[in-house]
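debug: dumping io for the single-chain case to check the tokenizer round-trip. Nothing else runs in this session.
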Amino acid sequence: MMSRGIIIALLLAFAANGYGQDEVHFETDVRGIFKKHCFHCHGEEETVEGGLDLRLVRWMIEGGDSGPAIVAGRSETSLIYQRLESHEMPPDASKQLSTEELAKVKRWIDGGANTARPEPETLGDEYLITDEERAHWAYQPINRPEVPRVKNTAAVANPIDAFLLVKLEKHGYQFNEPATPDQLVRRLSLDLLGLPPESQWSSELQASEDPEGWNKLVDKLLASPHYGERWGRHWLDVAGYADSEGYSDVDAERPHAWRYRDYVIRALNDGMPFDQFIREQLAGDELVSSPMNDLSPEDVKLLAATGFLRMAPDGTGGAVDDAQQARNDTIADTIHIVSSSLMSITLSCAQCHDHRYDPISQADYYRFRAVFDPAFDWQKWKNPKQRLISLYTDADRQAAAEIEKEAKVIDAAVIKKRNEFIQATFEEQLAKLPAEIHEVARTGFAIDAKKRTPEQKEIFRKHPNLNVSAGSLYLYNRKADDELKKMQKKATDVRAKKPKQQYVRALIETSEQIPTTRLFYRGDYAQPKQELTPAGLTIVRQVSGLPEIPVTSENLPTSGRRLALANYLTDPKHPLTARAIINRVWMHHFGVGLVTTPTDFGVLGERPTHPELLDWLAAEFIESGWDLKHMHRLILTSNAWRQAVRDDAELQIDDPDNRWYGGARLRRLDAETIRDSLLTISGELNTKQFGPPVPVMPDVVGRIVVGEENTNAGRPGAVVDMKGEDLRRSVFIQVRRSRPLSMMETFDQPAMSPNCDQRRPSTSATQSLMMLNSVELIDRSRKVASNLTREFPDDSTKRIESTWQTIYCRAIEKQELVDAQAFIQSVTEDLEKQAAYQAKGKKQPVRSADEEALAVLCQVLLSSNEFLYVQ
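debug: decoded output
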């Protein structure tokens, strides 16, 4: 009998030689490695390096210039393995195979260099996509799966719960208990509105006996105008919204980009079907029916929607080192924004070569680019100023003409009156001179100075007081000049009534000749290759059977390519779009998507934790008419969403990342919500919507703050009175790529380069320091304290209780009240010893010691985790 040690040694030897393991195939195990490291030189190009093409096993066996590349069953004598093991190939040291990849290649060769199926006789020019690549989950048709049966049916409020609970039950768990009403109402308000709840919502919900009370509260918040502001911000992230061009240090402003921001907010508030939302952003200009010089309000909205395609960083409005490269960079960034936001794929990886991991060829990339080339013709480029479309209508022009006619009557009267004053003043001055020169002077005054005779010129040179003109009249007759100014102001006031010239920054396609799209060799625009026509992804066409995008449309004055793309992406057969959008919706509600890589559904991305739920939601989304608010209702009325924060220690061990949804995820407020909540709590929030952005500027110490520098003040730090505009919601604050607001940057406001796939909240010491020292936070805290002191002038206990309700949205606990009272008393006693909080004669301090102590308490609460995190 063999000893235990010998048995273990034999098992290890068997394992080292691959015995007892699954058979390795080229298509499933090795092709991806070669595609990543080798295909660029040995398969993609027209001429393969060394005559060796690694895309088919039989070609490796046949070999190239150096002979057979592999010997089946013998890795040690296989040339390709020798080169890989010695790191001779790939030649780029940064692209060497990992130890695990090299071991897999060795195991494959030693196992007989097997293929999963017979290989094709030839590949031709068509990009090869394997059965394994076609089988990837993200490319499968969206089919509504059956709702699973669960044991605990009482825990199921809607199908979402069933899909999540079935996995929990499989592992022996259930949903966590529901969160408290206070927690749920705060969570709901911050989720849908990005603002703290109104104080009565929670008490009304708890007092109501209506079983539909929660559903009605959800509907109430979905109908709020603040909903579009909150969820519009989410979409503006993936669209890369910015009020500046970026690209270079100049970072020029985009004065009209805000119309796109307003379009997004209005569309979401109005409940626009999401397929229409996509269609208008991709091809709003192709849907316009009124003339470009007399746009209807509806068509203005459609043009504003195309701002989606004008959000990429763009340096072509100024001096750049390579103007052609800058143009192509802008197009590439636009394609990245479109593909990452609407399809959740890393299409940009195929700009210079075939995608190293996903079945996307370089030709696919440029076929997709061909959809946009008629509007983004890089050889007939429109700089930023040329993209502005005037919003003047025929009615505006007619009104302006009538007003101008009225103003010109006043102009004529001004001219007549001015001439009378000038002539009278001239005569007054002439009367002071000898009579013998009067006639000659009058004649000379009546004509152009250049046409005067030498005698006349000599008189005016010798007597400069005769040079009375419109510019010098005030020197002689101040009263006359003032009268003329009043008349001129009247003309100016009349002209001010003209309809203002406004613009929209849009993408439009002219009816000129459609440019040719060519594949750029290794992404270099200076090396164009074959001509390509517009198309979606080959893999999508093969799996879904969707028709290709036509080169031109017979029914439109434009090529119609972008409209065709929009219809293609929103076709129920398209496997990516609905999944991509609904995964983002889920991510914003739960803190993480069912696919945790929202812009990468490919091989390198994570697989969905609940694929059946993702497909059920995507199918529901499509069948609901792409109704986003319907999907919100489903999620927010599920028991899964209403769970308390996970607190099961055993579940945390089994599922450390909470992928089974056995409780809510503790989430920190994002940057905009922190600022907007502070303004709401202090009672200062200006709820004005829409319009040009509120400007930002550096303060005296270089921090970027909301405000406008007064350049006429003559002293540093002087600012223009914003008249409450600085207190508007963060979504209406200017987004300068080079000037992120210091407060919001600290809390991870994303940089748009070119867009933001998902927020990545951090925890850092700088956040605590900012909350400790922020002038804005101190001001907000003092404002809260001032409001509460005014509301409860004689009841310190009520002030403290209301502080908790205002900031934490819950009632204070007994021990918290005792501790807070002790804190207030201690701080008050310390402050009363300071001169700033003592009366000087009859002059009272700006703030009393007890009010300032309450402000300090408010700052403590506003800096705490309970305020900064959502339970």
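debug: round-trip ok. The chain is about 45% helix and 5% strand.
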